[in-house]
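Hi there. Long-time user, first ticket. I'm pasting a complex I've been working with (about 658 residues overall). I'd like to know whether the download I got is complete or cut off, because the file seemed smaller than I expected. Thanks.
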Amino acid sequence: MRTIEFKNKPRIISTGTVAGPKECAGIVGEYVDKRLTDDKFGESTYEKAECKMLTYAISKTIENAGVEEKDVDMLISGDLLNQIISASFSARDFDIPFLGVYSACSTMSEGMAIGAGFVNAGYADKIVSATGSHFSSAERQYRYPLELGNTRPPQSQWTVTGAGGVMIGREGSDIAITHATFGRVVDFGITDVNNMGAAMAPAACDTIRAHMKDTGRSVADYDLIVTGDLGALGSRILKDLTWEKGMDIQKNHVDCGEIIYKVVEKEFQGGSGAGCSAVVFNSYIMDKLKKRTLKRVLFVATGALLSTVSSGQGESIPCISHAVAIEVI
Amino acid sequence: MRTIEFKNKPRIISTGTVAGPKECAGIVGEYVDKRLTDDKFGESTYEKAECKMLTYAISKTIENAGVEEKDVDMLISGDLLNQIISASFSARDFDIPFLGVYSACSTMSEGMAIGAGFVNAGYADKIVSATGSHFSSAERQYRYPLELGNTRPPQSQWTVTGAGGVMIGREGSDIAITHATFGRVVDFGITDVNNMGAAMAPAACDTIRAHMKDTGRSVADYDLIVTGDLGALGSRILKDLTWEKGMDIQKNHVDCGEIIYKVVEKEFQGGSGAGCSAVVFNSYIMDKLKKRTLKRVLFVATGALLSTVSSGQGESIPCISHAVAIEVI
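Hi, the file is complete. Here it is re-exported in full:
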């Protein structure tokens, strides 16, 4: 049993989002709280810009809830930078107990799952979970300095510049987190660090399958099954893998990475990064939940648990996916 | 309120520990499950050795509990390597849902706090929390390659080669986790990356103070207040800081980093690293709890949330400390 049912139905009270210029030209542009015109956000380094975006997302989440910093019992955050410095340095700006988490690009759903678990258990009234990423800090940490102008292979994705936060509380809205399904590490032996979609799709499939088995639900019970950042190719692979396991997600599956950029061709397989699902879920998807266009969503963020050292030492890419079920009640 | 009281008193069922040759010459030598004679643990790289130690600690924790892998509901783990690859690659070897966490050298107590919270809430029957570190992988990631033979300043500490795991469950022992106090990020402006003790001591002080305030307990209510890896200097600073705040911890405070090596002079201020408190708590301190030499312990692991990038960009060192209260009931 990998799924927890939250009997007290912790609510999503508010969200806060910010995205870069490239992202705002795409689907999230009209839904985010802040559209950056400068991808350095006025800072001197990309790392500082990433941290500032995350701090903004946390602050905006608190502001959008109509509460104050002192009302928030816990901050749960992590990011892709080494030693999750964006999260740690953001947390320094808030007088709120901080839990650092790391689950690569599934950090958003891991944070939501822990947050909902703590609120459901009565440990906290209000928790903010947040994450983000930045294209340029990710490129230079994981790949090459931008200045080299390296070519990108067709299966690659574009790390999203953006951050998103969500406040989970005991009451205050009619959108609830009803379940969390925790992922196992799944490794299909993919070693191509430019092909994250193929590496992560099996983890998403494993978690979706566990969720359906544990809850007795079927794919049709969800208006939408939204994965994190598999991209266009990874999304196709997931559809195949789930089909093989007897689940047809063709009609109600979208991937945040696939839809975030309008012109997918130019960004190859689409978006990735912890900020991808954080921004898309907390702006675009939440808007649909608020408007009742969507009433029940399974949010399945996916993470590739590699590092430059593990890849350099010849290791394959272990992946994970944590899911949370969200419902208008 | 930063403290959760666990009404159902989740128990510490078992622990599993492994330590390197240098560590085993010190205080933990006679208590760990495995004493390494080769600090590469038969692997080709230090990173792989670190991962193997962590995997060993998790396996041994499960074995020492007399249960099997399938009986464990969740694994909570993190480490100091970029993107917590030791934890992620260890988790790949187990068919157990995995929560990745990062809190630098306070990862052990963060993992115990989340684990106890989940067990207390009835989300899980048995959870393993584990972490570890390796001197040589930490040196080359955070400082310099060993081959350079750089000199060490007198205020520096020695990253512990070792790993420790703990199983938390609903029943099965009379040693319980009764409270968790979550840390806030505290930054006193220290920028010397060789002086972690001075950077982390204020975070430990802040969490100890919050714990006493929230629980209505005093320092004298504990047989021992054991911090993570402040080292000899950091421990002295903590004693001063707590004294200033009206708490006298002179008589019942020890620091895992200060005590792990017998010859502190040679290791400067003592041990550090996520493995330091993980090994000392799960072997030496747990032995004292089992023998009733200690009956109530406040375990306050401490973490410095820096990275080479943040330090390189001139940032100071934000620190955090999470505490768990452990009691023979």
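A couple of notes from our side: The radius of gyration of chain B is 18 Å. Chain B has ten helices and 14 strands.
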